[in-house]
Structures are given as structure tokens and as C-alpha cells.
Amino acid sequence: MYQASKERYQSMPYNRCGNSGLKLPTISLGLWHNFGADHDYQNMRELCRTAFDHGITHFDLANNYGPPEGAAESNFGKILKDDFSEYRDELIISTKAGYYMWEGPYGDWGSRKYLIASLDQSLKRMNLSYVDIFYHHRMDPDTPLEETMEALAQIVRSGKALYVGLSNYDGATLNGACAILNEKHVPFVINQNRYNIFDRTIEKNGLKDMAKSLEKGLICFSPLAQGLLTDRYLNGIPADSRVRTDGRFLNENQITHKKIEQIASLRGIAEERGQTLSEMALAWILKDTSVTSVLIGASKPSQILDNIKATENTVFSKEELEKIDRISVENKEL
Description:
This protein is α/β, with parallel strands linked by helices. It contains twelve helices and ten strands. The termini are far apart.
């Protein structure tokens, strides 16, 4: 029987989601690539145990995480039953719907039909009566924003989610969605978006500034740019890397000579700071008080422990930030 560490909350900082009462750990665990049907169940358990033993209370999923779709939620449901049933009230569990999930016209995007049906399926897979945060996973250009927000409102009123989140929205759409949710008195607390040293999209599309202005939380995924912001590709592409084994989200064409030069230069700054490149990449996101948490992925427990070290130094000098920008933004390939 798993017994969580008694010291689990001593070293992890927790941040409030905007102006809400909800706090998240500075580092959260995303159950994406490494929780599918083709992965080892005992390793999944060890990943979750290691995370929780070191203060990571937030586990982030989506209906389509796997592969196949739904597998991550099903595996996490088993882990909850085997290891975490007595700790449910110490956990923040989030899931999402918005991407393709099942055949036919009702298994994608942002309709009321899809969102409510999808969450019901997710709860069954995880054997839960509610999730803590339910996200709409992406903007829907065809469904009225009012319909999507009303579906989220009904989900909260039904008790199937405690809080609402929005993922992959831009600033203008976030503002409109927030106005509707405020009118309905829905506890919308957090945005989830991709953000890292190489990808500054949320700075350009208004999301980051709007979230801060509206006093909503921000949790960032892909903080290591699918492994580019590590030492993994500096000496070639490993046979067991995601590029070789998957290729959907990072492919060989992206690992150019110019990109390797940028990564090496960034590693030099990290070494001067006494950090690994991955630690610095996480710390660079956490330097900003508008960021609530960073979502990490892991295939080994040791990676979780390494990533947690980033919280020990999130202060950057003006010169360091300027160097990072020169390397990653001004010299970015077009």
C-alpha cells in the first residue's frame, strides 16, 4: 500500500490562480505522451507517486490523451484507485475537451453536446464524480461562444467540475469568454497555453496580457519545446527520442544547425547560472508572477526531480534576459 511522504509539501511553492482561492503547485504534471496504452503501468504509478511525494498535487489530462484516445484517463483512474484514493481531497485533477474524440458530428470542437458528453465519459474512465478543473481545449470558430460558455456553466452547476479553464485561446476571445462567464457567475480561474523560450505566441496574440489584466491564472505547457530546451539533441538525434519514435509534435526538420547553435548558446547561459538548460527553461517561465504553474511531462521519475530543481532559482538579471532574447527571438529562423 502506497503511503505518501509526510514531507511532501515542504519544498514545493504554491501560487494562487489569479484572484481566485485556488492554488496550484509551481510545477504540475501533465499525463500526455507517457500514459497511453503502450506504456508500462508500473512506471506510470512511479511517476505519479514521485510527483505527489514532492508536492506536485496537480495532474493534468484531456479526453484525447493516449494513445489511443482516453487511455491516459483510464490509466490514471487505475492509479487513483490503487494509490491515491485516500488522497483525493489533496489533489487537483483537470481534464479537457475540444479536439477530435469520436466519430460523427458530435465528437469535436465546442458544442454543448460534445463538452457535456465528453466530461461524462472522462469521469467514467477515471471513476470520479467530479474533476477540479474542466477546460475547453481550443477555440471553436463555428460554435457561438455563448453556447460553449453556457455548457461550461452547466457543468459547474451540475457539480461535475469545481472550476472552469480555457486552453489555447487568444487574448480577444479570452476577454469575450470571461465576460460571459462572469455574467453567469462561473468560477473561471485559469488559462492553459503553450509557452517557452522559443515559442512566445501568447505574448503576441494578447493572451498573456489579457490573462493578467483579468486576474486569471496561467499554466504553461511544452515549457521545454518538446525536448529542444534540453541537452538531448545537442549531439545528434537519439534513437529513442520522440523525433524517432513519434514525430507528430517534433520532427527532424526542426532540428537544424541554426537551432542547435541557439540551444548550445542557451545552455551556456544556464551553466553560468548554475543550472541545466532544462532547469533554466522552466525558471524562465516561472520568473513572471503572472504564471501560476508550469506543466511538465516525464518518462522517468528522475526527470520530475530534476525539473523541480528549477524552482530554486527563478530570478534573472536584465542582462541574462536580454541575452536569452537575442539568442531565441532576434536570431529566430524565419
